[in-house]
Design goal:
InterPro entries: Ig-like_fold, PPM-type-like_dom_sf, PPM-type_phosphatase-like_dom. It comes from Segetibacter aerophilus. This is PPM-type phosphatase domain-containing protein. It is a single chain. By secondary structure, this protein is of the alpha+beta class. The chain has three domains: 64 residues, no CATH class; 86 residues, Immunoglobulins (Immunoglobulin-like, Sandwich), CATH 2.60.40.10; 293 residues, 4-Layer Sandwich (Phosphatase 2c, domain 1), CATH 3.60.40.10. Helices cover 35% and strands 24% of the residues. The strands form four sheets. It has a six-stranded antiparallel beta sheet with strand order 8-9-18-17-14-15. It has a five-stranded antiparallel beta sheet with strand order 10-11-12-13-16. It is rod-shaped. It starts with a helix and ends with a strand.
């Protein structure tokens, strides 16, 4: 009675009708009248229905207006993100479905409360979230909320692959991958045009060469043409070929024979004198090779009437030979391309050169620079190591070094090399595996695919040579 009286009192008051104290008894009789009571019950029932409808609509509109952000996805990449109703405080939702997810390769998993899948197309996808809240009739239509969802395109798809001009007099292949015996080992080497060059139809600037020499030595050469140099592709090719040509000459071959005698002395006496003789031998013979490369580049520049700097290129090369006491390795390097030797059980790494990067190197240097040969550090560009055995000899351009090792400080870290080998073994985003075995008939195809790895911001030419 009290609640009804309050309802009617408020209703009367809203219509400017007040009930004075001296009429309370009359008002009570008025409310108790059978017909009046029935009318009041109808009013109360209608008010309750009205409030229930308002509360229901308020729940719906609150969900409809609530901003919901979903983590961006990328075409081709496995995707998962939480879509938890409790997080959104959507406790009143009793039925729901998503429209638009399956069309782009996604679905909602109620158990994990996640949107998962592999997106198949990019764009601003309008996902429709259809729902009902507690209190809505079963036959009521679903409410529809549009959830904006961005699927980014696969970054790889944004890069063009424009063919380089085959009519150019200095054209060379965009991608080269080779596998061959070398010495008592095998070499697997690949050089690929970078995406930044492919995107505009320019040329591969990296190059490489390798060869077995008649005196039991084998040689591997890698060069990285400077991106700012107009004919660096030719400069790197000349550099690689010049090194091989130098060591195939009779005089150079005879010079290397002297190393056999020095090594025999070194084996019997590792004193300071013999070490100096070995260092002098390496400096003298490899230094002549490096200088011959420089002279050949000078001659080509003069013939073509172009500045020498148009042929700017880094250069690294390694000679190795097996002796009864192990392997002798001789090296030279100018620029930012590392040479590394991993011991037999991959517990140690030996760096055969230092890089022209940072404070130590003072910035990138090229074999075209005359000051290289006059600098006091020239003698430190040569290396000699005698190792019992090795698992891998690796030489690479910065197109591999930058994405896989990032900074020079990581190169002496054997853990990083183990990670690099694991990457080659298939532990990578694409699951591309290279089986480094001599009897692997698919090794060139596997390696070529691996060389196409994606690394954000790293789209330069890539060259990697592995002797194993």
């Amino acid at each position: 009675m009290t609640d009804i009286k309050q309802v009617v009192t408020k209703l009367f008051k809203s219509n400017n009708i007040s009930i004075p104290a001296n009429k309370n008894e009359l008002f009570d009789k008025f409310l108790q009248d059978e017909k009046n009571a029935a009318s009041i019950n109808v009013i109360v029932q209608n008010l309750n229905e009205l409030m229930a409808k308002w509360k229901l609509e308020d729940k719906v509109i609150e969900i409809m207006q609530q901003p919901v952000r979903v983590l961006n996805a990328t075409v081709g990449k496995p995707y998962e993100t939480k879509f938890d109703f409790n997080k959104f405080n959507w406790k009143d939702i009793v039925a729901f479905e998503f429209k638009g997810l399956e069309e782009v390769g996604l679905r909602y998993d109620e158990k994990t409360k996640q949107i998962t899948g592999v997106p198949t197309q990019s764009g601003d996808v309008k996902v429709t979230f259809r729902f009902k809240v507690d209190g809505q009739p079963e036959d009521a239509p679903f409410n529809e909320k549009i959830i904006p969802f961005i699927i980014n395109p696969d970054p790889k798809s944004l890069w063009k692959n424009v063919e380089s001009d085959k009519n150019d007099p200095h054209w060379k292949e965009n991608d080269v991958t080779k596998f061959a015996p070398l010495g008592d080992r095998h070499i697997l080497v690949s050089s690929k045009r970078g995406r930044s060059h492919a995107n505009v139809g320019s040329f591969r600037e990296d190059d490489f060469a390798f060869k077995d020499l008649e005196n039991g030595w084998s040689i591997v050469v890698v060069a990285d043409g400077a991106g700012s140099a107009k004919l660096s592709r030719k400069g790197s090719a000349i550099a690689c070929n010049s090194v091989v040509e130098f060591f195939t000459q009779k005089e150079s071959a005879e010079g290397l024979v002297q190393f056999d005698e020095l090594l025999q002395q070194y084996k019997n006496n590792t004193g300071e004198d013999i070490q100096k003789k070995l260092n002098h031998f390496v400096y003298n013979n490899l230094g002549k090779a490096a200088f011959q490369v420089h002279k050949n580049l000078e001659s080509f520049a003069a013939k073509e009437n172009i500045p020498l700097k148009d042929l700017n290129s880094t250069l690294i090369f390694t000679l190795f030979k097996k002796y009864d006491v192990g392997y002798a390795l001789l090296s030279f390097g100018v620029g930012d391309c590392p040479i590394a030797v991993l011991n037999k059980d991959v517990t140690e790494v030996t760096l055969m050169n230092w890089l022209d990067v940072g404070d130590f190197g003072g910035g990138t240097r090229f074999i075209t620079m005359p000051e290289i040969f006059k600098n006091e550090k020239f003698a430190t560009r040569f290396g000699f190591k005698l190792v019992d055995d090795f698992s891998y000899l690796m030489m690479m351009s910065d197109g591999i070094y930058d994405p896989k090792f990032v900074v020079e400080a990581n190169l002496p870290n054997i853990k990083k090399w183990k990670e690099f080998l694991a990457d080659l073994g298939g532990k990578n985003e694409d699951g591309v595996k290279v089986e480094l075995k001599a009897d692997n008939k698919e090794i060139e195809q596997q390696f070529s695919r691996w060389m196409d790895f994606w690394s954000t911001g790293n789209h330069d030419d890539r060259t990697l040579a592995i002797v194993f």
